[in-house]
Amino acid sequence: MRIIIFILLVLSACKPTPKQYDIIFTNGTIVDGLGNDAFVGDLAIKGDKIVKVSTEKINPDQADTVVDIRGKIVSPGFIDSHAHIQTTIHQYPQPENFLRQGITTICASLHSGDQPYPIDKYAVSLKVAPNVAFFSGLNWTRKKVMGLENRPATKEELDSMKYYVEQSMEQGALGFSVGQIYVPGLYSSTEEIIALQKWPQSTMAFTLRTCAMKEVDCYLLFAKLFELQRKQRCPRKLITSKQREWRSLD
Ligand SMILES: [Zn+2]
Questions:
Q1: pLDDT tens per residue, range 133-160
Q2: Domains of the chain
Q3: What is the pLDDT of residues 94-135, one digit of tens each?
Q4: CA of residue 85 to ligand 1 center, whole Å
Q5: In principle, which of 79, 140, 213, 241 could form an S-S bond with 217, CB 3.0–4.6 Å?
Q6: Cα 44 to ligand 1 centroid, rounded to whole Å
Q7: CA–centroid distance, residue 125 to ligand 1 (Å)
């Protein structure tokens, strides 16, 4: 019996103790995303988490795998705030065109084309590598209520559009997205857009394209949107492509 116990003790003593880290990346140029200058250092990973970032050398004996990444940059994932993944991202669980650029969060801008609806149901069903965020889109909303009609919305139609936008926001949309060079968003008046994007939310963002607008309309829309933005204290993303529109920003 004593011999058996002794053998068991010897066997347990031989069992390797687990290492502190799974992987160490050494000699990388680290950009931490906090606004600090880049620095050369090491980074340790355990499971699916970065557990240590250091300007000091991390002892390589503490990990199963050590990768020398001298000359390479390590940074947090990038956010693509304007992507046309629309309603098809579920077909690409590993969207390499994004991942290979270091993009780990994709925002479906939805200023054109269709949006998923309900957004929350679609988002929960996704099994894709990057994070994905959605907006409520003017073009989808107007088409849903009015088809491709080129005329002002009636009060009932406007109320119906408001309902869909509000529902989309409730379902987790980041904000309201407008693309005014696309049909049918092209037919929306400034008043209609303003009416559709009024929320007392501080997290609202906004994407806008105004290439097809007259300068005076453009100025009016910008002025009203910026006034709302100030009141709501919300971030807003503005995309324009013509010089005269930038002049309007003054
Ligand atoms: Zn776009």
A1: 998 899 999 999 999 999 999 999 999 9
A2: 2-74 (2.30.40.10), 78-249 (3.20.20.140)
A3: 999 999 999 999 998 887 888 999 999 999 999 999 999 998
A4: 10
A5: 213
A6: 37
A7: 24
